[in-house]
Amino acid sequence: MKKLLIAAIAVLLLPFVANAQFSISGTVSQKGSTTLLPGTTIRIRNTSNVTKTDSQGHYDLSNLKAGTYTIIASYVGFNTVQQTLTLQADLNLNLELSAAAFLADEVIVNATRANEKSATTYKNLSKEDIRQNNFGQDLPFILNNTPGVVVTSDAGAGVGYTGIRIRGSDATRVNVTLNGIPYNDSESQGTFWVNMPDFASSVDNIQIQRGVGTSTNGAGAFGASLNIQTTTPSAEPYAELNNTYGSFNTLKNTVKIGTGLIDNKFSFDGRLSRIKSDGFVDRGASDLKSYFLSGAYQGERDVLRINVFAGTEKTYQSWNGISEETLLQGDRTYNSFTYKNQTDNYWQNHYQMLYAHQFSDQFSFNGALHYTKGRGYYEEYKEGESFSAYGLQNVTVGGTVIEETDLIRRRWLDNNFYGATYNFTYKPSNALNITLGGAYNKYNGDHFGEIIWAQYASNSVYGNHYYDNTGKKTDFNVFGKIVYSPVEHLSLFADLQYRNVDYSVLGTEKALNQLNIKDNLGFFNPKVGATYFLNKESNIYASLSVANKEPIRDDYVNAAVGELPKSERLNNIELGYRIKKERFNAGLNVYGMFYKDQLVLTGKQTDVGEPLRQNVDQSYRLGVELDASYTISKQFAVNANAALSRNKIKNYLDYLYEYDDNYNVINTVTTPYKSTNISFSPSAVLFGELVYKPISGFAIALQNKYVGKQYLDNTQNESRKLKAYYVGNFRAGYDFTAFGIKNINLGLLVNNIFDKKYESNGYTYGSIYQGVASYSNFYFPQAGTNFLLSLNLKF
Q1: What is the pLDDT of residues 591-647, one digit of tens each?
Q2: Sheet strands (E) in 111-223
Q3: What is the rounded distance in angstroms from the CA atom of residue 125 to the CA atom of residue 38?
Q4: Which residues of 157-174 are buried (b: 16+ CB within 10 A; e: fewer)?
Q5: Is the pTM of this model over 0.85?
Q6: pLDDT tens-digit series, residues 168-185
Q7: Residue 399 dihedral angles phi and psi, to the nearest 5°
Q8: Cα–Cα 20 to 30 A to 37, which of 256, 415, 508, 595?
Q9: Whole-angstrom Cα distance, residue 745 to residue 490?
Q10: What one-character DSSP code corresponds to residue 557?
């Protein structure tokens, strides 16, 4: 592996000996404003020299001989610009594009997006940002370098089951939309990127809003929201072949094709991907496949897009982590599962129809119809299971009554999610923008279990369900937004949303208890704010937002019979300063997130040992975040961000059970805590990156990330925590043209270059036996030094 890594680095260093000639570089912006246009296509007429502007709207055309050229800049929704020039030396050329009369594809997501006038804390990632970091790892790892983000991987290397936290909030509190359509699972409210492998290859841009953010569809954002826009039309036809190989036999193959704009109206795009990896953890293997198809019609006043995409995953289970004792013994790759088919299997298909219409220059509409079909199971081998736990009769063999058996079971989820989203936008003048929108979504999920083999069959029948229940959820919301600028430098906004959730679970759950859960919740979520422009380059903003959020499925199922968990409420204050100059960009914000009835783990367990969450009266997160980039010179740039926070529960009651010799609970010990830390909430998350571009088309970056210690529970006990860790990564990329291929990209990502031993996730549970309290800690170790090498060809 070391030889392969050395060879890869040697290949990437080839451009140092290349003979660079003249270059044309500059920025592309919207005419009449300072808004830069990332993703603009820049090409030289009658040549294969094509590039796109990066996240800062900057482009660079290199290796040009002296001569006369015609530069063409095109961006969907804007009029194409071309300029003829004579090149005798390196040239800086800034271009401006004016908005076209017809709609841009971006209108599909505008209603849920923040912009420079929004009093919201946000971060935009362009297609180029995503491409540079896309080596086949799950989407959370592509977002890892953004403020306040902490990621983890069950298998230790970013492929398979992964997790993300933003501002200490887990995935169930991060609202995710795909083209404005909710993606979070309706019941668990989590996001499972393993179900959509290599989805990043079909993403055009992502906006991360931290805090409550703007009104969006789906569950409330209690930590952040991810607004994702999929592939938009390319002006030119293309074909791509992207390949990655790396440590742990990780392999990614992606084929992409696109027609470009046909008759300036039609476009078709497609992608087919597979990802395989053995994982860092023993038997932590993943076998993932996906596809993405999109067709669009774009007229002068209409945009119609149909997306069909799907993913399938088979991952060997590594979600138990390893015990603290095993970790101390140095066996970081241990996996307690040994059954050969201890796997998780899931298939998910998405269908989206997106439509936008411009009634006039002031009035427009966009909406979407969607349907998602999901189906899958996880299979596991269980030893010594009692027949009664599965509703089965004991077995008598030779006069001996047998009460337990080894067995193999599958637990299934079969669900359907469908609905509609819409919004109308009225902009009578540059000083006023009014949006009215909403969504209506329905979910039906069947949960059931099967026994596919047993040492003693009892009275079970293959294919019968030993438990069976159905979850149904209707999610309706309507919102109105007004952005008003009474004077030139001031922008005010009000955003009012009403959301209604109707949820029921009926049937038998996996412990064979009867479920008859019904809950109907109505939420009013107001938001107000103001942005003041100090000048064309900088502004300050302030906002106050309210969000309400329903409990997740497990909160309902595990609640005491006849009781319902309370919904959660968040009051969010954001204050910030933004500045954008030619070489320097920065955002500084402070925030306060004040929770009422937040659901947290308390140490309580169900009768089968599953952890319970309960409402705590008052808790909060206070923090400051910095996000900055500085172009030192044409060769050097620095990117950095920092998130410092204080995360507390004012009054917390911890529960610990005492057991007798027969594992029966004989007592419950409660311990009160005041002003204790919220679990999994590091007080510091820091990131820094140094980028070096010795010649055009070639860049290397040294990335460093620090994550402060995190407690595994809410007791702030030093013996139950994830230690702080510091990780360095190295990334290199070289874009060039050869052999008639439009663009060849060589990429190298070396993760954890200092071979740090660290754990990014874990859990703990405790008990009392014979008067002595003890705890068991489990951890998820992450891989040491590992690499991914990519070769991407664009035709």
Answers
A1: 999 999 999 887 666 555 567 788 999 999 999 999 999 999 989 999 999 999 999
A2: 121-125, 149-153, 162-166, 174-178, 181-182, 203-210
A3: 9
A4: bbbbbbbbbbbbbbbbbb
A5: yes
A6: 999 999 999 999 999 999
A7: 85, -5
A8: 256
A9: 44
A10: H
